[in-house]
Write a structure and sequence with these properties.
Blueprint: H1 15-21, H2 23-39, H3 41-44, H4 52-71, E1 74-75, E2 82-83
Antiparallel strand pairs: 1-2
Helix pairs in contact: 2-4
Amino acid sequence: MTASPTPAPHLAPNWKRILTRAWSIRLMALGVLVNGLDVSWPYFEGYVPVSKLWFGLAAMFIGMGAIYARLKFQRNLSGGGRDEQA
């Protein structure tokens, strides 16, 4: 028995609208920023009055929020009703 080929990934037809309005995208972008600050912490140590632990915790909670926002249906992303965001 041969396996059927998996379909190629593709963007949602309204990807521009999703990119600008979905909370999961916004939270993921914020998470990338916080993770970047966490990784580059040695360069900021002493200049920013926040401990490295808080950057890690912030990244964790932002990531959890992004997962929740991704799984939750968001209104008005596809034009009506309760549509999935992607």
